[in-house]
Each structure stands twice: as C-alpha cells, then as structure tokens.
Specification:
The structure is a homodimer of 342-residue chains. Chain A has 13 helices and twelve strands. In chain A, the strands form two sheets. Chain A has a six-stranded parallel sheet with strand order 2-1-3-4-5-11, sandwiched between helices. A six-stranded mixed sheet of chain A has the order 7-6-8-9-10-12, with helices on both faces. Chain A has 342 residues and is an alpha/beta fold. The first copy, chain A, binds a DNA duplex (16 and 16 nucleotides) through helix 2 and helix 4. Chains A, B: This is Transcriptional regulator.
DNA sequence: TTGAAAGCGTTACCAA
DNA sequence: TTGGTAACGCTTTCAA
C-alpha cells in the first residue's frame, strides 16, 4: 500500500480523469475551452475525490489572495477601536461575509488603515470602505498603494463612481410623507454636523420636502458621540417652545431614544401628541416603548452589492457606476401610527 | 532601464544583502542559525526594501494559511445568522483581531461550521469557537477534520483542556458579596435553562453562595430569545409576592432591563427598594437609568488568550491547560450603590 | 554559519 | 480541444 496522500491535488484529479492538469484547471475556472463530455467527466472526478483548489497555490500563481477586507469606520461610541456598535454595521458585516463566500472569497474585518504600512499589512485584494468621510485619509492611502476600493455610500466632495448605497433622499422623503399622512403638520429634524454624504443627503431631503409642502424647517443639532442625551436636551427645548413640533425625525443613530425620553418627561403621548421617526433602524428602536418607526437602510443588500462591485473592480472592469440598491424600507411602528393601520 | 519589478521578493533582499535567500528566510523566521552581524545587515535591507514575505508562497511551502477563524455562536436575537448582537461578542471580536494581527495572522469571522463541507470550505489553520454548547456539533465536525480548535469558555460535559475563560463562579460570587455589603438580604436570580457552561457555573455559584451565607435561594427562568419581556414578567411575580427580594441578579444578557422595567412599574426605587445586577455587561446597562451594575467578563483579554493558545495548538504544543484569564471586573453603578461610595 | 537546489499546487503560455 | 513546461515566492533539505 502506498502511503496515504495528505491532500488531493489537481494532479490526482487529472490522472484519475485521464486528462492534464491544465484541462482540470481550465474547467474549474470556467475558461470555456473544453469539450462538454470531458468537462462532465472531470467534474465527476473532482466531486468524487473531494478536491478543492488550494488557495495559496492559486494565489501564488495568479497574484490574488482571495481575501477582501471590510473596513468599518470608527463610530463615535466605539471607543478604543473600530467596532460594530450599531445594528447597521452588524448587518453590513453579515451581508459582506455571505456575499464574499458566495464569490469564493474570504472576508477579513479590519480597522480602517491609517497609512501605507497599514495598507501593506492588510494583504488583501481589495477593500470595502464604509462611510468614507470627506477627504478620507485611509482612502488616500489605499489609492496611493493601488488597492482597489469600493465605498459604501459616496464620499462627500469626491466624484469617484465606485460606490454603493441606497437613495438616502428618497428614503427620508418617504418617511416625511408618511408622517404627513399620519397628520403631522410641524416636523422637526435632529441632525448632526459631520462631513458625510449621509448627513448632507438627509438634510437636503428634509429641506426640499419642507419647501415642497410649505412646512417650516425646524432643525437642531445633536452630538454624534452623545446622541441620546444631546437629543433629549434639544428636544426638550423644542417641545417646550411656543410652537412645538408635532413630529420629530432624526438621522443620528441613538438620538431617537433621547427624543423619546424628553417627550416622556414632558408627559407627551406618543404618537398622539408627538410622532418620532429615526432614519437609521436598530434593535433598540424595535424594543423601545413605544416601538419607534425607522428606516431600514438595507445594509445587507448594500454590503452584497459592494462586494460584487469590488470583485468587478479587482478584475479590471473599467465601466464603473454607482449602484443604488433601493430606497430603504420604512418600518412603521407605533411611534407614528396615529391613525388606525390599514 | 529595467522594467519595474512588481513586487520585492526574498531574492531581491538576498542579492542586495549579499547572502542567499535561505539566509534571509532563516533570519525572518528566527531559525537562529545566523551570525548576528549578517542578521543585522539583512534586516536593514529588509526594512529598506520594505519586503514582506508573501503569505501564499509561504503557505504553499509550509502548508499553513496564516488565517484563523473566529466562530461566534448563533445568539438568540441574531435571527437569520450568526451575528454580533452583544457588546460581549463585539469586544471579543476586537480582541481576537488585534491578537491575530500581532501574531502575523489574519482573523476571519465565520459562521460556525455545521458539517464537514463547511469545515473544508473554511480553509483556515485553526478555529476559536465561542461558547460551545454541550455536545456541540460544529466542534465534532471540526475535530473529525483535524482542525485545531480552542474554545472560549469550556464545553459542558467535555474534558477538552483547550479552552480559555474567566472564573465565572468567582465573578458571580464577587457580585453577590457586593450586594450583601450594600445591604441585600434576599437576592433572587434570573437565569436560563441552556446547555452552556456559563449557566451551570453561575447557577452553581449562586447556590453555594446562598448556602454559605444562609440566604434563601430564589430563582426564576427567562427565555434567552426574549430576555427583556420574560424577565419583566418573572420579576413582576417575584416582586409582588409576600416576601419579595431586595436584589435581583441575572446571567442572561438583556434581562436586567426587564427587571428594571418591572421595578419601575411597581414604583420601586432603585437601589433603595431593589438592587439590580447583571452578570454580563453591555452598553445598554451603562446608559440605563439608573445605570446597572454589571460584570465585565473581560472579553478582549479572553479573546487574546484564546488566539495565543490556538497558535500554540496549531504549532503542535501538546501541553494544554485551560487558561483562566481573571475573575472579571465588577462595574459598580448606581443600581447597587445603596450606601455612599467609599 | 551559509548556500544550492528541489519542490509546494496551481495557472499561463505556447505548441500540438 | 488539449497538453507540456515553466514559473509564481518561499522554505526545506542536504551538502559545503
């Protein structure tokens, strides 16, 4: 008896199928120059022997690594590191991992690279960069090192077409329509002052929607690092004024809970006296009492599209175009259901 | 002019340093058979040229991939997938990524493999398996395929010594001591009925602590899938009884908020009428009102230790021993500060 | 203490 | 439509 082979190689497959390794390789890589009959025979042997191409060997030859990185931004609450602090980031991660696996790629979660050294250490074929800020330094480092990048949401002030996102403006507009339909006549917005496309879009959507419907604009700022308490404070001021809003929306994750607290302290009933909507969904909004209406920004869809687009970019596709995945889904919950549901 | 080299290789380094590739390799791999002078010279060239060994090439030769996987369990709330739903998992992830990077490894987040095929597709050198349940199927699949595994927390009913964790019993005991010190005389526990070492340990610690101090045991179960509402219901029953507890601890993530809600509905003051402690910390407990005392189970330390232990196991170390990282840290917050702080 | 040569498993290139 | 051969960058083995 021969000593047991430690691993099935392409050579074993070739011998067993009576073809050359080249042919096997061409078949599994869909090079399309094979006789269907040969193809079927080889694929059967592949399955029987349970062979899978070795990533390292393939990578050595092709120069690819079979790994892409998902770089999440440092969110305000994440403290000492890049982290998954929000449901949005979590679902983004899930979507990216599953899409990558479908492509036969591995997905590496990594801190956003700060310099060339970080980029070199990354050792991946490409990067999905989430929520780049205006003039994003990591993106500059990535570009300088020739690393293919696709961003989730566009970078403010950049015309790079390699990005994926939802139609932020349409999404916010839909939410405002819903509030109006439920009887809101004075809608305030709690937002933040940050160099991100997201905030620009939501603010623009709010402004144009107000103009369109003859609503007064009523805006206040919250700190992203401290959304709940600053939102509570800002809401208290607004709601105690002579002409208080009858609905508040916010585009800052976590701020809606602050509005809720302020309303409760002022003995306002929700949704009768005040409706609340969040432009970013999350589990806490679902379990809040009452549950808060929110926009599901389709993070899993966005992540999947980003991974696929990145794959195209890595493979040298030079026909880029932003991909708008959808308009988000409005998750209508008690906080804005003033009338009976249909 | 020669065409630009696409990548610096070990050969380039060797030529520039006037040695052979073998020598360079031996130096960067600390084989220790080199003249210190040669060594210094070579290392300088390595730095100057910015060379880094290519993972695929090295892997092809050594059979290693330079990647380890972190497999998180399907938490109750995670729905359709393995996810980071808790602060604990998030911090575990951060710790693992950073420890892996320090080891020159990449860390891959992956769903827990369900069968042999999944294990094969994983293509990693080893796996850190978080919170294996009793008779864990994925661990069996991993073992059958010869995949090195280290678990975070031990598997109930298994005597596999390759695990890392904190001293759960000591941690819970410390929390109970603190409550007693603050005046608690009747401490209830909200726990769950699941085949995990964690629950066994916390329940055992609670039981023996009660016996030791002559406290009556007062236990209720909550559903892990629905911790907040089931905890609220169970607490309401307990707190409305003839002999209500004056303190409640729970080892289920999210349950403490339910206790809080029940107490609020019953107009109990916290901590004066009721103290609340959670055996798992999380951001929501910090921002609850009042903030809730909790155990920090040192997830980052645990993850780091797990990665290092896994590395040892992969490298053939056969001198295993469970690693107890610590006793957790008791984060004392308002919910249990009945007396003035020291 | 060092180096030459032989691979590791795969794919690219060119010839048949 | 196929196959032979060389090469990817590194480590290992063995000889000097």
């Amino acid at each position: 008896m021969a000593p047991p082979k430690s691993r099935v190689t392409i050579k074993d497959v070739a011998v067993a199928a009576g073809v050359s390794p080249t042919t096997v390789s061409d078949i599994v890589n869909a090079k399309g120059r094979v006789d269907p009959e040969t193809r079927a025979r080889v694929l059967k042997v592949v399955a029987d022997l349970g062979w899978r191409p070795l990533r390292s060997a393939r990578g050595l030859r092709t120069g690819r690594r079979g790994i892409i990185a998902l770089c999440l931004p440092r969110r305000p609450r994440s403290g000492d590191s890049w982290v998954l602090t929000s449901d949005y980031d979590m679902r983004l991660t899930i979507g990216a991992v599953s899409a990558a696996m479908d492509q036969g790629q591995l997905l590496l979660m990594a801190p956003t690279p700060a310099n060339d050294e970080d980029v070199a250490r990354l050792e991946v074929d490409g990067v999905v960069l989430v929520d780049p800020e205006e003039g994003d330094l990591s993106r500059i480092a990535l570009r300088r090192n020739g690393m293919p990048v696709v961003t989730v949401d566009r970078e403010l002030g950049s015309d790079d077409p390699w990005w994926v996102g939802v139609d932020n403006k349409a999404a916010v507009s839909n939410m405002l329509d819903h509030l109006r339909e439920q009887g809101a006549r004075r809608v305030a917005m709690l937002t933040a002052d940050s160099p991100w496309a997201w905030f620009e879009d939501t603010q623009a959507a709010y402004a144009s929607w107000c103009a369109r419907h003859g609503f007064e604009k009523l805006t206040a700022l919250v700190e992203r690092a401290n959304p709940e308490s600053t939102a509570a404070a800002a809401s208290t001021v607004m709601l105690s004024s002579d002409a208080p809003p009858d609905a508040v929306i916010t585009d800052v994750y976590g701020a809606a809970l602050g509005v809720l607290r302020a309303a409760r302290d002022l003995r306002l009933r929700i949704p009768q006296d005040l409706m609340i909507g969040s432009a970013v969904d999350g589990h806490v909004l679902e379990t809040a009492s009452p549950p808060i209406t929110a926009l599901d920004l389709q993070p899993m869809d966005v992540a999947r599209a980003a991974v696929l687009l990145l794959e195209r970019r890595i493979n040298g596709d030079d026909n880029p175009a932003p991909i708008i995945v959808g308009e988000g889904y409005l998750r209508i919950r008690t906080s804005t259901q003033r009338r009976d549901g249909r």
